[in-house]
Task: structure prediction
Amino acid sequence: MLEFLLVIAIVYIVIIIYFHYQYPELHWDWEKINIQKIKFSNSFFWGTATASHQVEGNCNNNNWSVWEKSKDEEGIPRIKNNQKSGLACDHWNRYKEDIELIKKIGVTHYRFSLEWSKIEPIKGQYNQESIDHYSNIIDSLIEKNITPVITLHHFTNPIWFDEMGGFEKEQNIDYFVSFCEIVFSKYSSRVKNWCTINEPEVYSVMGYFAAIFPPGKKQPQLAVEVLKNLLIAHTNVYNSLKNLPNGENCKIGIVKNIMQFDPYRRWNLLDWLVCRIADKIYNGITLSYLRNGRININYPFFVKINYKSDKAQLATDFFGLNYYSHSHLKFKFDLYEFFENKFFDSDTMTDMPYVIYPEGLYRAIKEVEKINKPIIITENGIADSKDDRRGLFIERYIYAMNRAIQEGANIQGYFYWSLMDNFEWAEGYDMQFGLYEVDFKTQKRTLRNGSNKFVDIVNGSK
Ligand code: GAL
Result:
């Protein structure tokens, strides 16, 4: 018996040592780092990003507008303090003024999304006014020498599409592809950079596992099916746009959020186990799909999916990387939510439940380099209403990115999230990511002090 226990103990220790070295949690000594020294090549570009539902206002015909009015089973409103996106930043009407603000900080690229529900409010019927609206934004950007970067899907669906089952059904993908073809044919002579789908893993995990985003389901199996469908949608959109006029001259890529899952207790095998599972679902499915067209996951009683596409491989011109932070997971005895997110006293928190962890951006870059595609940092930013950590966040994350570039990473540009404070999904207006602070009563925008760090880097790094 004693021998048996001894063998178990040895095996346990060997596995822990293996994990420990296989998945190190990187930490740099910031005291010894000279951030001032960073330089970027002339071809490196800087930008800032938004998404339609978060800034435009009056997005009354999509899944989020329905979600904002709804409550959960216990009668609790879905959005913190029952907030509604409402007029948001009124970017729909104020885009010219906002383009001036983009120009003022010195960036050359603006990433924004098209609101599908405004362009195709009824299945198959396109709204000319909305098509013209985005066309005017594109012209205004180009006039100011700002390169437009369009996201085709950023979390929102028209209500009619959701009523048909949205991305739960593989056969619905064609509706999305048709919408993409229409807008691409309108704008692709002027817009050369296209993001297909923003964060498919966030859309599916938040909507179908955590139930924090619409449709608020808690069905892990459905979550991975939806993720698979979104990845297929990316591939189908990529292939069909490439075949349209201008397709070959445009860069079309997917945008993925990377988050590392590190064990809260590095000696605890159960913590390691939940981290490996979370990583495989959240990051692994998409990365494996892009690498070889395969999705193979089999966690008995939880999720199972085996899929092989022959079209997926290489079907992206760039990898759009969104990065915010990592998580420390602790195993929990609960059949459904078998882990919890934990923090250490030493963590420097942002206003979101994210720690400041620039090393994670470096780790994420190393991970996605394996896809072998040019990388664009399509989102990175901090919610910091007091504006007392923004400057530090910006300089350290940009340092981490620069370090990866010095070591050979092919990163072409960086977008700060976000141009201005906006409707932060389930958190409403409480989370303030903006370079510009927005007074939502007057719609006045004011550049934050901490954002000057970004302005300085953008204007002085070449
Ligand atoms: C991303 C998302 C953005 C923004 C950001 C900040 O996941 O793409 O729309 O909300 O997070 O939390």
Summary: The chain has a mean pLDDT of 97. Residues 51, 54, 198-199, 202, 257, 322, 379, 417, 424-425, 433 surround beta-D-galactopyranose (CB under 6 Å). The longest strand covers residues 251-258.
